[in-house]
Amino acid sequence: MAAITAADVNKLRTMTGAGMMDCKKALTEADGDFEAARDILRKQGQKIADKRSDNATSEGLVLAAVSEDGTNGKLIALACETEPVAKVADFKNLAQLVLDAAVKTNAATKEELLAAPQEDGRSVQEHITDLMGKIGEKLDVVSYENVTAEKVASYIHSDNKKGVLVALKNVGGADVTSVGRDVAMQIVAMKPVALDKDGVDAATIEREIEIGKEQARAEGKPEAMLEKIAQGKLNKFYKENTLLNQEFVKDNSVTIAQLLDKTQKGLTISDFKRVAIVG
Questions:
Q1: For residues 59 and 142, is the Cβ–Cβ distance under 8 A?
Q2: Which of 67, 154, 178, 202 is the most buried (most CB within 10 A)?
């Protein structure tokens, strides 16, 4: 049986981020073999991941990064089960590691991001699994967005559980920092379902028309009028739920489309991404 020293335990802690007692136990079980001990710790994390796979992840952190030239933005949401875990340094460091990996690799998908190798040889997913073994909770990258545009604006809400990327086009020479942030804040607060009415999916349109008809029918409106009334309600839905048609929350005398055009003629939005960790 190999003698396990404090230096050995510290070395394994540095390699894996696992707790001191877990490292000592793994080294003892592996008879001092560091690679075998790492495997033991990883299996421990995987067991927790498997056991808690159906658990809800309603806490966590949303982080964003915009490139220095402002043309690309990354947005990640790392979720956990409980609020205390979301506040510990290990979890915050893991969230930053995930974001940094997204920036470094420019991963196109969540799957690419999770597979990205880190300097210590572990993938992003392996870092997540290993921390699960340490803290005993399910952890998951629930959202990842990668946006490229003429200019990208970002906003993270004060609760650190909601975030937005906004893709601006026809920027010209305007400084769009302020308006971009305002629009991003609007998206967090008002939750638009699409950029404009052309972006609303057919199923949603059909549902809103049927709701409009049922409401009109319940109010005793004539059957022949139901379709027209429902179309009017659908137009109201577009105004309230599509970004460019929404009233600006800071000044309801203008829509978002008008706000952008006032900032710079022709300025508009080509896309937006909103992520949230919800309970």
A1: no
A2: 154
